[in-house]
Amino acid sequence: MRAAPRAGPDSTLHVPWEWHTLGNGLRVVLSPDPTAAVVGVNLWYGVGSRNERSGRTGFAHLFEHMMFQGSANVPKNRHFELVERAGGSLNATTWFDRTNYFETLPSHHLELALWLESDRMGWLVPALTEETLSNQRDVVKNEKRQRYDNQPYGDWDERLQAMVFPSDHPYHHTVIGSMADLDAATLDDVVDFFGTYYVPSNAVLTIAGDAPPERALEAAARWFGEIPAGSPIPPLPGHPDPGPRIGGTVRDRVRARVPLPRVLIAFRVPTFLDPRFHAVEVAGAVLGAGRASRLYRTLVRERRVAKDVASFVYPLITGSSMMVIWATGYPGADPAALEAALVEQVEGLASATEAEVARAVALTDTRFVRMLEQVSERADLLSMFTFLFDDPDRLNREMELIRAVTGEDVRAVAERWLGPDNRAVLAYEPAP
């Protein structure tokens, strides 16, 4: 067991935690908060779309759906029914690097959540059937139609990922994967994928909120302790390190059923694991966070060349991450002019002022603090920092790292990673 150090007199944040590892390798993080009156249970599995082999994409996201279709002792859809009947909420998400499952319940129902999560970790396979696979495969395909195929600009991330990351990189394909790959999947493929990645040694369980650590640890050990650890996780497929830059400016121009022209620009940037990531994150906030940001102030309010703008940085961990900015123009706008306007603001970061950076730091800091206000988010962050950094106490230092970003750091981001040697430009034009 490792316990968190006590907060010092200058500390701005201290979320208490304990970290234990069960005999099967399951890492258990406990973060008591007796004032919460609820408990958040969060389970991170170290499996996402980056783990999928060529020809077998979409499996991680498919399992986000399959895990709610019943296990040996929990009938189909009963997971939702039992948690909601107890006054709780639940969900799951799939990402490039992980899949998480989470419940928030009144604290006296802690063991219900642990039983449900342990049953599908240890005893999902007996409930897997061809019928369930076929049904959930159709659900995923319908989701792709709604979110990607039949939505204006819906395939932007699929196109940008293919431009930013080489074909042999784990981030080259989208999280939802290929529908052809899912159609070709057999029940044996699905069972093998589950047995490889959904194991205690590849997971972090966090319990946050109104749960005394001794009781929570005993319950976690009782429900999860007998599940076999699993075999070592296979290496990532392909070549995980694409290099720090794209090597030029690559372009794709799309005529599609979109209402307005839109230009997106993506850049390879350092990963979430890199100490320089916070400077990239703050640079993205200087560009696009709020109505006083460079993109909104200049392109939307002052010049009125864009209807909306956006800027965000993906917290990815494999080789390189990605920053994306975009501007949506008015009817008849020239995509080349939109691109030039975006580039001007990006290159202008090389002269970002200390006041701009201080504002962006404050916004980034505030967003992080607001996440901590919710027990469920706190549990998810503890799972994340434990899994990615082997350090749950990173949660208590994150604000310090954000606040340490300077104007010089942001200007360096523009010079190192946002130049013409590292750009993917995707332009949408309304089809005639």
Describe the structure.
The protein has 432 residues and is α+β, with helices and mostly antiparallel strands. The chain has 2 domains: 223 residues, Cytochrome Bc1 Complex, Chain A, domain 1 (2-Layer Sandwich); 183 residues, Metalloenzyme, LuxS/M16 peptidase-like (Cytochrome Bc1 Complex, Chain A, domain 1, 2-Layer Sandwich), CATH 3.30.830.10. Helix content is 41%, strand content 19%. It contains 15 helices and 12 strands. Strand 2 and strand 3 form a beta hairpin. It is globular, with a radius of gyration of 23 Å.
Distance between the termini: 64 Å
The third-level CATH topology of the largest domain is Cytochrome Bc1 Complex, Chain A, domain 1
Specify the helix fraction band: 40-55%
Biggest sheet layout: 7 strands, mixed
CATH class annotation of the largest domain: Alpha Beta
The unreliable regions are 1-11
| Structural class by SSE content | alpha+beta
Oligomer: single chain
Read across the widest sheet, the strand sequence of neighbours is 1-2-3-7-4-6-5
Principal-axes geometry comes out as globular
CATH superfamily of the largest domain: Metalloenzyme, LuxS/M16 peptidase-like
Short descriptors:
globular; disordered N terminus; seven-stranded mixed beta sheet; 41% helix; single chain; 432 residues; Cytochrome Bc1 Complex, Chain A, domain 1; 15 helices; 12 strands; 19% strand; five-stranded mixed beta sheet; 2 domains; alpha+beta
